[in-house]
Amino acid sequence: MKLLYRILLLTASSAALFLSVPAYAQENVFHLKPGAHGKICLGCHVDIQEKLSKPFVHTPVKIGQCTGCHDPHTSNHPKQLAADTSKICFKCHKDIVPSNARSVHKVAREGKCVNCHDPHASDNKFNLLKSGNDLCFGCHKDMAQKVASVRFKHDPVEKGCINCHSPHASPGAEHLLKNDVPDLCKGCHNINAPIFASKHMGYPVGNAKCILCHNPHGSNRAGMLFDNVHPPVESKMCGQCHESTTSQNPLALKKPVFELCRSCHSNMVDDALGKNQLHWPFYTKGGCLICHTPHASKETNLLNAPMLKLCGKCHSDTIERQEKSVTKHEPIKDGKCMACHAPHASDNLMLFNQTSVINLCGSCHEWQKHSTHPIGPKYTDPRNKNNTLMCLSCHRAHGTPYKTMIPFPTITELCIQCHKEYKR
Amino acid sequence: MIRKLSGLLLLLAALALPASAFGAEAFKARYITTVYTDDKGVSISQPGGLACTGDTLIVSDSGNDRLLVYGYKNENLTGGKEIKVSQMGYPFKVRRNSKGDLFVPDEKQHRILHLKPDGTFVEFLAPADLPDAQTMDPKGVALDAGDNIYILDIYSGRVVILNPDGKFRRQIEFPKDYGFMSDITVNTRGDILLLDSVKAVIYSAPKDSNTFSPLTKSMKEYMNFPVAMTTDTKGNIYVVDRTGGGIVMLGLDGSFKGRQLRLGWRTDEVYYPTDVCVNENGDMFVADRNNNRVQIYSTENP
Question: For chain A, which residues lie within 8 Å of any Cβ of chain B, measuring from their own Cβ?
Fold first, then answer.
């Protein structure tokens, strides 16, 4: 019994010791000759020898432990790696993506470390492939273009993305930010400085979310406001919507949101409320802010998100249908929901912005208005005497699992719905 | 004897097991007929809502700004008389109380019309003591067995409860973190049910309760975008899946019992349905809006 206990103890402590040692430091697993280590490998892999002269060398490479990552004999993984490419780095760098992270860089989550790091050696710190923003802009090309082209630049962005973002994961904030907004911004911007108050018309916005109005990556507007600014904000007439700065609660709105918006946009609101079909969220107490942001936005019409994302918040099933569709309908793919739908109200079914579906589709597909299967008010749908034939008699505008957005796997199956004589 | 009896019981249990195991598939809808026109042959247009009893079907023929009243008994449809009043703009739903009075939410006017059974206009529901009455936006209306009126006010995020005379009794706030409430109904127990289209969840408030809590989890695995619901005499709930083109049946406790119908244009199919009504005989009427017709099915359920 005592012997068994000792064996178990020995096994457990050996296992603990094994687990505590970095993978690359597991001594002589392959029974190499004394002093051999990486020297044997470098005999053939002379390119690695050259890399060793670079200023930043990966520790296992530096100490000649090629077997820390590679299996010298056989492997099921590329480059004869000792484990899956997406997992091998995490054998040593265990905590690089904390399990409780609020946001994680996609490449880090997927274990594509080599997208940013050279596993052997590099001229840049942390074995990075490129230095500074050049590395990030290699993937984030749109951002690179915007940052380079804007008139008013944000200094920390110029100096390096990692001033605000963590490259692997952020335990405390979204978008890989090092801290939540506004605490992150307050690291540089003194909210108690007189200029801060004067720029914000004396309103106590020190703890507001700066990125509701300001574009942190730079902008073409003074004050780095987003490109589309609500006119009262632009003309610094905050008091048009908010209580005065001397009131007890200066940020409070003068009226409930819908009524407040209506006080300027009354023509549009009255017009919408008089239509047969209302987009119901429009007429609710917080209605306008379901889709719009009140101060500034990078989207047109002060939308609070790109249209596909915005509409998809409620109509996720419709957006998913498009995503799964074999044929993509261009306006939806491009997030132009308003190409067909009126966002507030309409007299037409499905909030279409034209009475005739044929004319609506024809505004892009002009040729098919007159050179296609008979469609229009003169042609009754053989399947339903109360319907006339139109584009939606055969297609679903948000897509189907079948080509050309038809609701059946084959064209034959579609046609024999009406042309039963051809059914085989 | 005991051994024989035990054996028989075991056999019965074994036979009963599949029935209970496949209970979720027990909801069946058999197509009966389609309503295309009124009594003068005028086509129905964009029917939005329905009310029904054992022998009556009322259709809100929204596209023609009118209601239609049909007789329906033993699978025979008769009539189709028009109710059209000047106060009616775009009637998108209709509900009926025990006396035959009609309550019609109007999408164009954002008000609810109260009509007599013969179609005579009585009033727009406007309870005097209702807080924030000027901004009420009625998305739906429901009636209980005692003819109390329940209004789904999406502007203020509340259910407004009126007594049968239309006088304000009380209000219940919508639950926190709801997506968008599309419909309201009251079951035979007096529980108020709310349908959240965005989250695909039904909330319930037991009779006399002042709060709503979820009756179901998200039902997105059974439906795409639910927009309307009704209950039958047993308390089963029927939910209209508009973009998916189907009716989902749930038990009194919100458990899934089955899904029927199919998206399409053919005789027994539906295309963007918007309302459902089930009468005491188990006849199920579906407002087949984008097909401009009303579909009638008989139902079988556990």
Answer: 256, 258-259, 273-278, 280-281, 283-285, 313-315, 317-318, 321, 349-350, 381, 383-387, 393, 407, 417
CA distance A262 to chain B (A): 13
What does the pLDDT read at residue B6?
52
CA distance B173 to B149: 16
What is the rounded distance in angstroms from the CA atom of residue B253 to the CA atom of residue B267? 33
Q: What is the DSSP string of B236-293?
A: -EEEEETTTTEEEEE-TTS-EEEEE--BSSSTT-BSS--EEEE-TT-EEEEEEGGGTE
The residue whose two tokens read 């091998």 is A88
Neighbours of A263 (CB within 10 A): 12
Pick among A318, A386, A398 to test the B interface (most B CBs inside 10 A): A386
Report the residue from B243, B272, B291 with minimal CB separation from A317. B243
Nearest to A208 by CA among A303, A338, A79, A296: A296
Give tens-digit pLDDT for A340-377: 999 999 999 999 999 999 999 999 998 887 778 999 99
Residue A47 CB coordination number (10 Å) = 9
Inter-chain CB proximity B264 and A314 less than 8 Å: no
Tell me the β-bridge partners of A146: none
Return the H-helix or E-strand segment holding A388: strand A384-389
Mean predicted confidence (pLDDT) in B30-50: 97
Query: Token match 């957005």: residue?
Result: A405
Are B291 and A386 in contact (CB < 8 Å)? yes
Smallest Cα distance from A384 to chain B, Å: 7
Enter the ipTM.
0.86
Q: How far apart are CA A18 and CA A373, in angstroms?
A: 74
pLDDT in tens, B218-241: 999 999 999 999 999 999 999 999
